[in-house]
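Person: I keep going back and forth on a fold encoding question. Show me how you would write down a chain together with its backbone fold. Please set it down just below, with no commentary around it:
Helper:
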Amino acid sequence: MKANRSIPAAQVVPVLTYPDVRAAVAWLEAAFGFAERVRIGEDHRAQLRFGEGALIVADTGSERAAPAGGGVTHSVLVRVDDARAHCERARAHGARILMEPTDFEYGERQYHAEDLAGHRWTFSETLADVAPEQWGGRSMDA
């Protein structure tokens, strides 16, 4: 893949719509630990990074709208080093915690949160390398 400094290097980049891009960027940095890498216009879009991952924050307009409530249309999963500490940081900045950090048989500790615009997030800490067959999954890798 060719490099381009004008787009995140991650191969999959969620684009989430917020009613106020600048407020969303400030909140995502404070609550979840993202860092802004590119600003496009004053309140049009922003590219954020989190480790090797990326996220684009987009303004409303055209067909784009922030979540309206009443259903979950998506969730973004972000891997973190310490889910408990991350959860407390998010809570301190007003994230609505939907599920407290919970350990799962597939080797992950995860919590669920909702951000200031209603987007759903899962933050996941790896506790152990567990084969999918150990918890009832099936690996499709040859």
